[in-house]
Every structure is written in C-alpha cells, then in structure tokens.
Amino acid sequence: MIYVERKRTKFLALPICFTTYTISDEKITITSGFLSITVDDAFMYKVQDVKLTRSLMERIFKLGTITCYTGDTTHPELKLLHIKRSSEIKDFLLVASEEARRKRRTIHNMDIDNFDIEDNE
C-alpha cells in the first residue's frame, strides 16, 4: 500500500504548501520546494516509534501530525505535518516498520551506559 499526502494549512486544511509525503512499505519520502526541490528518504526499518498529535485546529479540520522516531542520522525525528488520514497512516507506519525490521532481520538495540553486573556470591 502507498499513501501520498500533502502538507496542509491548519486553517481550512488547504493543500497550498509545496510538501508531499509518500509512504510505502519500504520507505518514507518527503518532497518539498517549488523552484528548488528537495527529496529526502528514510527507510521504514529505521522507524522505531510513531506518535500522533492533533491540536484543536487539526481536529476541527480532520488533520494530524505524525512524528516518527528513527535511527536515521539525518532525521532522528521525522515529522509529517498536518496530513489527512493521520490515524490510518500512523497505524500503517507501526505495522510496516515492524514488518520491514523483520524482513531485514534487524532489531532495535538500546544503548545502556554504565551498566554494571555484580556477582551475587
């Protein structure tokens, strides 16, 4: 499944911004700009957690902002701002990221600093 959403204004949910989010099973692509276009990708297997926030204005106009916490160096926090179908896309991101990690046989490792094991003898 592929989702293509545009960044919208909070007021009246008009798609007058020049940012497009394309979400597929393998990656998230953010295309922004009008004269000078920037395309940025983040692989789905690097997405570790997903958060959905909806302000009052976003709820009125049926929008939401999705924050993806990734292991990517360029985007540790990837924000998909003011998009429609935000709840559906958040659920898709959670399932697709877990499936992508399973396919690549990668696991999320936690960095534990100053972890000491004491022998109980």
Summarize the structure in words.
It is a single chain. By secondary structure, this protein is of the alpha+beta class. It is globular. The protein has one domain: Pleckstrin-homology domain (PH domain)/Phosphotyrosine-binding domain (PTB) (PH-domain like, Roll). It contains 2 helices and 7 strands, in the order E-E-E-E-E-H-E-E-H. It has helices at about 55-60, 85-105, and strands spanning about 5, 20-25, 25-30, 40-45, 45-55, 65-70, 75-85. It is about 20% helix and about 35% strand. The strands form 2 sheets. The chain has a 4-stranded antiparallel sheet with strand order 1-2-3-4, with no helix packed on it. A 3-stranded antiparallel sheet has the order 5-6-7, covered by helices on one side. Residues about 110-115 have low confidence and may be disordered. This is PH domain-containing protein. It comes from Anaerocolumna aminovalerica. Pfam families: bPH_2.
Secondary structure layout plus pairing:
Elements: E1 3-6, E2 19-23, E3 27-32, E4 38-43, E5 47-53, H1 56-60, E6 64-70, E7 77-83, H2 86-104
Keywords:
121 residues; alpha+beta; PH-domain like; 7 strands; globular
**What would CATH call the homologous superfamily?**
Pleckstrin-homology domain (PH domain)/Phosphotyrosine-binding domain (PTB)
Total number of β-strand segments? 7
Name the helix and strand elements from N-terminus to C-terminus, one letter apiece: EEEEEHEEH
> For this structure, what is the CATH class?
Mainly Beta
Q: Quick check: average pLDDT?
A: 86
The helix content, as a percent range, equals: 10-25%
Report the sheet with the most strands, covering strand number, pairing sense and barrel closure.
4 strands, antiparallel
Compute the number of helices. Answer: 2
Which regions are unreliable across 5 or more consecutive residues at pLDDT < 50?
110-117
| Total number of domains | 1
Spatial separation of the terminal alpha carbons: 56 Å
Kindly identify the CATH topology. PH-domain like
Overall shape: it is globular
Radius of gyration: 17 Å
Structural class: alpha+beta
Strand order of the largest sheet: 1-2-3-4
Can you tell me the CATH architecture? Roll
